[in-house]
Design brief:
Length: 205
C-alpha cells in the first residue's frame, strides 16, 4: 500500500468515528423498533433482481421478526438464539440456530456497539434515502469467516439509526433493505414474537 493510500484509509477510519459514536449512543437507548421495509435481492451471475415488502419488529435484546407480505407471505423470526422461517404457501417451517439473520439489523440496538472492532469502517459520504439525509458507512469484516464480505449502512443524520442496509455475499450477490415509517421505543403488540402456525405445518430442522 502506498503512503498516500494508507493516509486516505486512516483518514476515512477517523472520519467514521463520530458517526459510530452517535450510532452506538442511539443503539444503547433503543428498546424496540417497528417499521416497514422494502427489500431488493440481486443475483449478479444470473442478472436477476427480486423485491419484497413487509414489516419488521425488533425488541432488545435479541428478538426480531420479519413479516413478508409480498411477493409471498412468510415470516422470519429470531428469538433466544434460534431462528424460524415459515413459508405460508408451502405450509413449512424451518428452524435452526440464528446466524447471519441478525446482520439484517446491524447498527440497531446492541448491534451498534463495537462495529469498529468487528469491521474496518470507512465513511463514504452523504446520501439521501427517501426524505432522510444519511451518512454512508462501508463495513469490511475483520474475520475471514464472516457470512457477508461487505456491509454498507446509511445512517440517518438526525435520528442516528440505519435507514438502509446493503449486505454483500462472497459471491457478489447483495441484499438491500430500506426501512420506512420507523417508530422507535414504542409498545409492541402482545405476542409479537410468538409464531402461530397451522396444525398441518411441516417442521424442518
Amino acid at each position: 500500500m502506498s503512503a498516500l493510500l494508507a493516509l486516505l484509509v486512516l483518514a476515512g477510519a477517523a472520519d467514521a468515528d463520530p458517526v459510530l459514536k452517535r450510532l452506538e449512543e442511539a443503539g444503547r437507548a433503543l428498546s424496540t423498533m417497528q417499521a416497514r421495509f422494502a427489500e431488493t435481492k440481486v443475483i449478479v451471475l444470473l442478472e436477476e433482481t427480486s423485491e419484497a415488502r413487509g414489516t419488521v419488529l425488533l425488541q432488545v435484546p435479541g428478538r426480531f421478526r420479519w413479516n413478508y407480505e409480498a411477493p409471498q407471505e412468510s415470516v422470519t423470526l429470531v428469538k433466544d438464539g434460534r431462528f424460524s422461517r415459515y413459508l405460508a404457501r408451502a405450509k413449512q417451517v424451518f428452524r435452526g440456530p440464528a446466524r447471519g439473520e441478525a446482520d439484517l439489523l446491524v447498527g440497531f440496538g446492541p448491534g451498534a456497539a463495537g462495529l469498529g472492532r468487528k469491521y474496518r469502517v470507512t465513511l463514504v459520504g452523504e446520501e439521501a434515502v427517501g426524505e432522510a439525509l444519511a451518512w454512508v458507512l462501508d463495513l469490511q469484516p475483520q474475520a475471514s469467516s464472516a457470512l457477508f464480505s461487505a456491509i454498507r449502512l446509511w445512517v440517518d443524520k438526525t435520528r442516528h439509526f440505519p435507514v438502509q442496509t446493503r449486505l454483500t455475499e462472497p459471491t457478489g450477490d447483495y441484499n438491500t433493505v430500506r426501512f420506512e415509517d420507523v417508530k422507535l421505543n414504542v409498545k409492541l403488540p402482545a405476542g409479537a414474537f410468538d409464531l402461530r402456525l397451522p396444525k398441518d405445518v411441516v417442521e424442518v430442522e
